[in-house]
Amino acid sequence: MLFDDTIAAISTPIGIGGIGIIRVSGKDTIKIVDKIFCGADKKSLLDKPSHTITYGHIISEEGNIIDEVLMMLMRAPKTYTKEDVIEINCHGGPMPLNAVLTELIKKGARIADSGEFTKRAFLNGRIDLAQVEAVMDIIESKTELSLKQAVGQLEGKLSRQIKEYQSILMKIIARIEVSIDYPEYDQDEPITEDFEEEIRELLDKLNSLLKTADTGKMMREGVRTAIVGRPNVGKSSLLNALLEENKAIVTDIPGTTRDVVEAYLNIEGIPFMLLDTAGIRETEDTVEKIGVQKSKTSIEEADLILMLIDSYEGIVEEDLEILEKVKDKRVFYILNKMDLGSNISQEKLNKNLSGKITLSISAKDQDGLNGLKQAMRNFVIKGNVTVGNEATLSNMRQKQSLIHAIESLDKVAEAIDLGLSEDCFAIDLHDAYGHLGSIIGEALKDEIINELFSRFCLGK
Fold it and tell me: Which helix (H) or strand (E) holds 295?
């Protein structure tokens, strides 16, 4: 055991509900809770077997009944934290929960820090860092697919894959170190012939895993989708039509949208974070200028851009300026207001949008929206992994560690091509091993671990 104290916290959201749960973990858990609990069978919790539920009451120091509860007792090590854990099922509501928590503190427990239960699970070796991050992803999942991805990571799909890659590296490292320490027993031919193919195959696997990073991030956070265009092309109308609600104000007055309006859209399990932006144009209005600048920032940060063009008015100078800004991005060009007819010449379409993904819609009449949604869905899943069936990177920390591992192995491959001796790239192999290990929390700095757990809620 790494911890000498016992922690307690309310694990359910604060508010009125049928049930509220207080979680307690630590070496003195059972002894502390037993002091405030009176079971219907009059037996001490100290004598109860693990993984049992007991009905009874929480009693105050003055002998008053605080609440009627169910006491779930779980003895180490088969618990969430690998410590003794008790979960007290109270009636939901701030008063009974806080009253019970107060009694626990009086008897020797302390209030848990944010994410401390999960942190203890990590430090006690029950889960690794990738699984820790999966816990938060499960809590924050917005669709079935994002939940499926997070559950797969919690089950250890990514961790097992990383450990398999580390095992390959460790065998190569051991072979090289034996060669360096005992050269008299080595073969005449270069030992790189023994593992050159393995290095290249491993690089292919790591690069394939790296390709899942963007998809994994999109599944976890939502595909940042910026709806852009000049004023009055129907950006807010499209947002409202996709959401099937009046999320944004729609008027005939140009410049109505002054700030970025955000909303989540679920398309067949894939979460999209829609960003309705201010119309991009030159303006002297101070507030509108700020909105236009935010629109430009949204273009830079977006995973996908929906650029709207007014099909009735045609492509004008302001459209050409925006086309220039988004030309190197992943963009769907959307010809809106088709209900009014199209006045865009084929010549202009060929000149400005030839070879681009172009869709025609009427946000007002909701025509063409199903085709747009299907295109957005295909954007995410086409050519990428099937979510939940393979290991997937889910955040920037994991992605950066994998990039560093690939860079180290690239140096090894280059050294092999140059015919350098094995001692020239042994360090790079060790570096690659370490970078892979950081994905699952091996040799990670304390400040990084503390920052990660600080994002958790109390009681988790």
Answer: helix 286-301
Q: What is the pLDDT of residues 98-132, one digit of tens each?
A: 999 999 999 999 999 989 999 999 999 999 988 98
Provide the β-strand partners of residue 295. none
In angstroms, the first-to-last Cα distance of the chain is 19
What does the pLDDT look like over 322-331, one tens digit per residue?
Answer: 888 888 888 8
CA distance 66 to 430: 58
Residues 6 or more apart in contact with residue 213 via CB below 8 angstroms: 393, 398, 399, 402
For β-strands 7-10 and 110-111, DSSP reports them as parallel
Q: Is cis: bond before 77, omega within 30 of 0?
A: yes
Contact 149, 387 (CB under 8 A): yes
Distance CA 219, CA 242 (A): 19
Question: Which residue intervals of 55-183 are DSSP H helices?
Answer: 94-106, 116-123, 129-140, 144-154, 157-181
- Tokens 């099922």 locate to 89
Residue 92: partners with Cβ closer than 8 Å, 6 or more residues away = 12, 15, 16, 17, 18, 19, 20
413 Rama sector, left if φ>0, alpha if ψ -120 to 50, beta otherwise? alpha
Three-state DSSP at 456 gives coil
Single pTM value for the model: 0.68
Calpha distance 252→193 (Å, rounded) = 71
* Spatial distance between the Cα atoms of 92 and 77, rounded to a whole number of angstroms: 29
- Cβ contacts of 21 within 8 Å, gap of 6 or more: 10, 11, 12, 87, 88, 89, 90, 459
Helix, coil or strand: residue 17? coil
Domains of the chain: 7-127 (3.30.1360.120), 135-211+391-441 (1.20.120.430), 218-381 (3.40.50.300)
In whole angstroms, what is the distance from residue 56 CA to residue 38 CA?
Answer: 6
Nearest to 59 by CA among 25, 103, 13: 103
